[in-house]
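Hi everyone, sorry if this is the wrong subforum. Our group has a chain we'd like a structural model of before ordering constructs, and none of us has done structure prediction before. Sequence below.
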Amino acid sequence: MDQAYLERAAHDLYTRASTVVLNGERTIPIQQVQQTENQVIIQTTGIHNIKQITSIRLLDEQGGLITERKVNIPVLDEQTLLFTFQFEVKGGTTSGV
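Answer:
Right subforum, don't worry. Here is the predicted structure as tokens:
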């Protein structure tokens, strides 16, 4: 695939990523979104007072799901959590057309 197209697809993700939801209920503010060529990195602010992580979702500006991870991770009492999403947009192959 053309590098310019991959960068355009990454830019689309860069502009649409807007909300991080922890455990289906707590919204975590996004602190920073960076794009370098076809890579996008999204970082949240730090949060406290979480005892368990069961899921984390990244949503677009319309509330549509971009990605979701379901886990079961206990958290120590005084731990500060920071979440990072890292995407690399890659080309694929096509079958005989």
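For your construct planning: The first strand starts at residue 17 and ends at 22. The mean pLDDT is 92.
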